[in-house]
Amino acid sequence: MLRLQRCVLTQLLSSRSASPVSHLRRLISAAAPVVSPNPSFAVENYLVDTCGLTGAQALKASAKLNHLRSPSNPDAVLPSLAGLGLSSAHVAALVAKDPKFLCAGVERTLAPVVVGLTGLGLSRPEIARLVSLGGAQFRCRSIVSSLQYYLHLFGSAEKLFRALKYGSCLLSSDLELVIKPNVAFLEECGLDPCDIAKLCTCAPWLLSTNLERLQAMVACAEGIGVPRGSGMFRQALQVAFYGEEKITAKVDHLKNMFRWSDAEVRIAVCKAPMVLTLSKDLLQRKSGFLVSEVGLEPAYVAHRLTLLTYSLEGRLRPRYYAVKFLKENGLLDHGRDYYAAVVLREKAGVMAPVQCSVFRNELPLTDKYSLLVRLNSEVVFYLLSVPCLDVSKLPKVYLDQLRRLIYCRTAYLDSDGPSFREKSDICKFMIVDFTQRREPAYYSYMQIITQ
């Protein structure tokens, strides 16, 4: 029986023109014998031995299956899931999260849902992924009409699945009474369907909350100075989810920390509402670095609040030290703005406009590499080293660190700078690509000009 059910469902899924549900019903009904209750059936053992749950998971899940007296229905569900392509691990995770999935009717519910989703253009792997993300909602036939609406709203299954990763609230909410009224209200606020999809990809709860709360969130966003239709309105809505009381407290904290006036704090929040989601400790450390160490004026930060959204160790600090080092050694104009170096995209080249001069030979080679290892992130760094660079002279500790941190490739330098053209040898342009690293906070490029 199980082999026949697996075969039937697999054929249904692999065919682009799905067979009628009634045909599937007839086949499964014909294959399914009448099974009487099994007095010796132990749900907890079945969950461990057949579904792959741990003892603790099975104990917890069995409490929701105490009405189950026979393995006949679970024995029909499991091959159906396998036919969709779910691995044993995925099946175990699904059953642990939603034990009642084993009680779903294959003929009455699962098969019609699969047929409907296939008709919407979802592939078998996509349906399997939806089972894992949707869980209990996949056991409802209404999921087909919901998916039809969401696929149109988000534009693709991938974008929808990205939203469902944050929670299956979209699938459990009433489409007509909750979702559509919220979408209509957001459109009234000046957001087009594309904006709504982008907003709700990472904040799907905006669509599943009640309309009154969504209206209050819009009022809160406007209250912090971000009007409807502005570029930051989407971000302000995400922030407004925290509630007016918490937002007011965070605004007051920013104001006191930077000694901003009411006008300055309003300007700052309008430019980067997401800064209100940062913890007080993180804000304190970033403000301390920018004001005390970099020497920026509070008013300067207020007009460039995006500075606070960048990583302190991954971007703010290393780029500051790189700019400082270049200025001290005559490789960068002292008028170069710190903010411009921070916000420039990683692959654009932080120091691309630098008019390089011959690097001072007074700095020992080992010190140069020590600096590079210390900066080891985020910096696109131009440097003329001493003649006849010989890495064999470097201490082993530097070589080991460089091998671990760096991926190099060589190209030729194309520059009109006379200091380069007058050289007898062609300068090599080495791009040290930190995108090859997997650790956080090491993302971009460091460029070293050697001779």
Structure description:
- The N and C termini lie far apart (75 Å).
- This protein folds into 4 domains: 2-141, no CATH class; 147-241; 244-307, no CATH class; 312-450, no CATH class.
- The radius of gyration is 30 Å and the shape is elongated.
- It is built from 25 helices and 3 strands.
- The longest helix is centred in the last third of the chain and has 17 residues, at 312-328.
- The chain has helices at residues 2-14, 21-31, 43-49, 55-62, 72-84, 88-97, 106-119, 124-134, 143-154, 157-164, 169-172, 175-188, 193-202, 205-208, 211-223, 233-240, 244-258, 262-271, 280-293, 298-302, 312-328, 338-343, 365-375, 396-405, 418-421, and strands at residues 408-412, 428-433, 445-450.
- Helix 3 packs across helix 4 and helix 10 (157-164) crosses helix 13 (193-202).
- By secondary structure, the protein is mainly alpha-helical.
- The protein has a 3-stranded antiparallel sheet with strand order 1-2-3, with no helix packed on it.
How is this fold's topology laid out?
Elements: H1 2-14, H2 21-31, H3 43-49, H4 55-62, H5 72-84, H6 88-97, H7 106-119, H8 124-134, H9 143-154, H10 157-164, H11 169-172, H12 175-188, H13 193-202, H14 205-208, H15 211-223, H16 233-240, H17 244-258, H18 262-271, H19 280-293, H20 298-302, H21 312-328, H22 338-343, H23 365-375, H24 396-405, E1 408-412, H25 418-421, E2 428-433, E3 445-450
Antiparallel strand pairs: 1-2, 2-3
Helix pairs in contact: 1-2, 1-5, 2-7, 3-4, 10-13, 15-16, 17-19, 23-24
